[in-house]
Amino acid sequence: FPSHDSKEDGIQLSEKALKTLGINYVSVTGEGTFKVPLKSVVFSQDEVGIYRFRSGWHKIIDVQLVSKTATEAVIKTSELNSGDQIAKDGVPLLRAAELEAWGGSGDGHGH
Q1: How far apart are CA 49 and CA 33, in angstroms?
Q2: pLDDT tens sequence across 50-73
């Protein structure tokens, strides 16, 4: 169900899909280093990322994990601006939708 143009943009989901998946967002503030809910952070193999929501697009961006507690994480990234929204709830489902959109191979970003 996700529509997509390219991995650079990320994926777009309909309002209905967002409600079904239970996707909610939180705005971040700061510059370079951000405090985010731990459930916003995606851990896969050796990568750490979060889903930025900007202009209708969900895009996973790589972040550096500075520290974490049971409920919060401190991350560093140059790809977030103060006021950007990140996915807070439904992140595993968002990840599944994205993998589905890209054929499920999960070969990542090709670092």
Answers
A1: 14
A2: 999 999 999 999 999 999 999 999
